[in-house]
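Dear colleague,

Following up on Tuesday's group meeting, I ran the structure prediction for the two-component complex that the binding team flagged. I've pasted the input sequences exactly as they went in, so you can double-check that nothing got truncated or mislabelled along the way. The structure tokens for the whole assembly follow below. Feel free to forward this to whoever is handling the docking comparison.

Inputs:
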Amino acid sequence: MEHGASSVPAALPYYVAFSQLLGLTVVAVTGAWLGLYRGGIAWEGSLQFNVHPLCMVIGMIFLQGDALLVYRVFRKEAKRTTKILHGLLHVAALIIALVGLVAVFDYHKKKGYADLYSLHGWCGITVFILYLVQWLMGFSFFLFPGASFSLRSRYRPQHIFFGAAIFLLSVGTALLGLKEALLFKLGTKYSTFEPEGILANVLGLLLVCFGVVVLYILAQADWKRPSQAEEQALSMDFKTLTEGDSPSPQ
Amino acid sequence: MEHGASSVPAALPYYVAFSQLLGLTVVAVTGAWLGLYRGGIAWEGSLQFNVHPLCMVIGMIFLQGDALLVYRVFRKEAKRTTKILHGLLHVAALIIALVGLVAVFDYHKKKGYADLYSLHGWCGITVFILYLVQWLMGFSFFLFPGASFSLRSRYRPQHIFFGAAIFLLSVGTALLGLKEALLFKLGTKYSTFEPEGILANVLGLLLVCFGVVVLYILAQADWKRPSQAEEQALSMDFKTLTEGDSPSPQ
């Protein structure tokens, strides 16, 4: 192990700060786009649609991304505390995303539009169901006390891979939605470099950058959360005996 | 190390076979979409545009994805041979993608359309430039004999991360392009579940699945190519002396 439980890799805080700057900028630019070019946000009329992109970006992009970073940021806190924070961020993301989903289905219903006909809709509903399944699996394996040590160790790599994959799919789905919103409104005017088109393209690139930076932080092997001393000791001595909390870094 | 140089992880061949089935299906469905609904392919008139999606899918998705899998598939061959195959697949991908790019710029020019105004265009040109830079960096560090052992070891994780990131961005860019092509042609008819819309949505999901399966194969730590015995020996004995080929698994 390169870093003890007490040391923080030198570059990590800068990358985390940069990811937060990018994430907040994404949320702000989404708000600016909806405010400047789409008439703002309300739970009635055509403005109800605008709740959808804002909630999905806050929930499925920003909060979901931050939930993945929790184990890199909170390195010295007890594993259990960090886990609960990870779970709570995902609950917040899920609730906000649900509001965003209700907004678009309700808007479609009132306007008599079809649901889930586009690639954005197909990807979106798939990703949301996967996210829900991932949340329930994560809860039952890691927060619910019943799962055994060996079950947890076998499921952990799958949870980490599909967590990252679902996050990346969320970013991709957001790009498809943004593109759809642009093309429906601008049509061929999109090719005349309208200010709205340029702002939305910038928002798309910011979304991509947020996704890449979060993935970069997750992918650095020596930025992973170190095992705590007491967890390591447990791991060495009781690996095959205990069925308790998992000792390995996450 | 869990696997010796001679053993292949039991599940790996099935995942690789599945990835190839998906990749070939993606290419076939792209061809079917262009043939059935877009009049086929030619280097003249409006059919010239159709060269673009087909070439980009073959080059930037299928061949690029396969180039990333080379180190997982060829586990017993000499490191040098595997490297050259990795480089050659990327050269083929690059040339085919270039043909696809020339097709769309030439088509835009003949029709008097603007270039690079959309999010698809912005993402696409960014990804292509990153891919070119990645290729040149990879060539100078790993195939050109000048780079030192320590330089190679430090660059390797970056090369692997950005290789995967560029591949995923290519998949995302393809989805955006597909969506653009659909919305420009179908417009509001997209919401009536036109056969072309459904076929293209299926193609989009297949592209996503190919991306996820390739990423899954790359992400499994114990599916990585094992160090060859002679490379390991070199690594142990001459690590600080030699400036030759890199001994660690890739």
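Chain A has one domain: 12-226.

Cheers,
M.
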